[in-house]
Amino acid sequence: MTECFADKEGLTRPVGESEADAYVRGICFKTGPPRLLGAELEWLVHDAHDPARPVAPHRLAAAADRVGALPLRSVFTVEPGGQLEFSSQPAESLTACVDDLSADLALARPVLRELDLVLAGYGKEPWYEPPRVRSNSRYNAMEIYYDRINGAGRNVMCRTASVQVCVDAGQEEPGPQWYRRRWRLAHQLGAVLSAAFANSPLHLGRPSGWRSSRQACYARMDPGRTLAPVDDLDPRAAWAEYALDANVMFIRSESEPWAVQRGLALRQWTRTGLPRPATTDDVAYHLTTLFPPIRPRGHLELRMIDAQPGDDGWIVPLAVTAALFDDPSAAETALLAVKGLGDAPSSQPPPRNALWRRAARHGMADPELHAAATVCFAAAREALPRLGARTAVLDAVDEFAARYVERGRCPADDLLDKVAGGEVRP
């Protein structure tokens, strides 16, 4: 996948609406034969002896410092609530991607254990409400912006974690790997992936009514930046329209705090030049504040998968997603399996439409999503040997399919069962 970095020259030059539109169209879909894969793994950090005990900010800071000092292959970042994120480099194979991230996690876990901490794979913090522990200009301004709407933004910032899978955009020319085809597949398959890997069913230790509370939070956030673009336009035109119509969160400056905006769309900013002229760099930064379920960054970033339980639970969504996008036969099967799922009329795009809400609320208990997932997982499993997947990856996919998909369950159901049986406490 090709990262969307602007040409260093001209970044600070003022731009008007047409230039901003052309810039967004020019970087959102970098086309070519799909060959690269990536993943971003977010983790909550829990006390090793009492997962329900809030972790003090100084302990989270120590964890971030210790892990950040390791010789990691991936890009390491710390999220606002102290979540730790490992973002792989673009890999030329599934095996390379798995190996690189596994190596980094193998370095990080012993360091965390020395601090009596562990990485916890949940889509949303199940036991308590972590506060924001990271303070910088971006996060300070984002919190103010989100708090004007509702509490969902603060929840996503500080209390959620995910497995984000990144696949190439696809080919420019029509065909099995056409970028328009992959874009449409992502928005229909995304509901299946959200349902199959739902793993955030609790709020303060009690059932929230959603298998994926994390996805429910995204559906409640600022709709201009967290819903999908309209699907009746060319994807480049749709994304450019979406980006220019989205409100600007804040205007950066050398001094703090950054000026949080209210009702200032990027389109309006580039037309008026107020409160100061917008630059190409401002447009590029604005794109980093948009969080739809599939974000085009040259490649496609799939953002709907909850963090998974277990040390290696993340490998299954990575492997299944890679197979369903990059193996032509599996991609065709997946497209047919999900084609009818989005036919019901809806006034809202994902994740607010009926299909995505069913995925977040019911997971694999939804009959249509369960049927589609069964077909998609079988197609992925057949394709993975063609992608060079190792036996351990194949075994993990088999185990997940048998434990969850075939039984109409998702990881959230395990946690709900434990709470109902009194095995875990709030």
Task: Provide a descriptive summary of the structure in words.
- With 426 residues, this protein is α+β, with helices and mostly antiparallel strands.
- Helix content is 45%, strand content 10%.
- The protein is built from 17 helices and 11 strands.
- It has helices at 17-28, 57-68, 94-114, 137-147, 152-159, 179-196, 213-220, 223-226, 235-245, 266-272, 280-287, 315-326, 328-338, 354-362, 367-383, 391-403, 411-420, and strands spanning 37-47, 75-78, 84-87, 117-120, 163-167, 202-203, 206-207, 250-251, 259-260, 294-296, 300-302.
- The strands form 3 sheets. Strands 1, 2, 3, 4, 5, 10 and 11 form a 7-stranded antiparallel beta sheet that branches. The chain has a two-stranded antiparallel sheet with strand order 6-7.
- The protein starts with 16 loop residues before the first helix and ends in a 6-residue tail after the last helix.
- Mean pLDDT is 95; it is low at 1-9.
Helical run tally: 17
Summarize the main sheet: 7 strands, antiparallel
Arithmetic mean pLDDT: 95
Distance between the termini: 42 Å
Unreliable runs, pLDDT <50, ≥5 residues? 1-9
Shape: globular
Oligomer: single chain
Compressed to H and E, one letter per element, the order equals HEHEEHEHHEHEEHHHEEHHEEHHHHHH
Strand content: 5-15%
CA radius of gyration is 21 Å
Total DSSP E strands: 11
Q: Percentage of helical residues? A: 40-55%
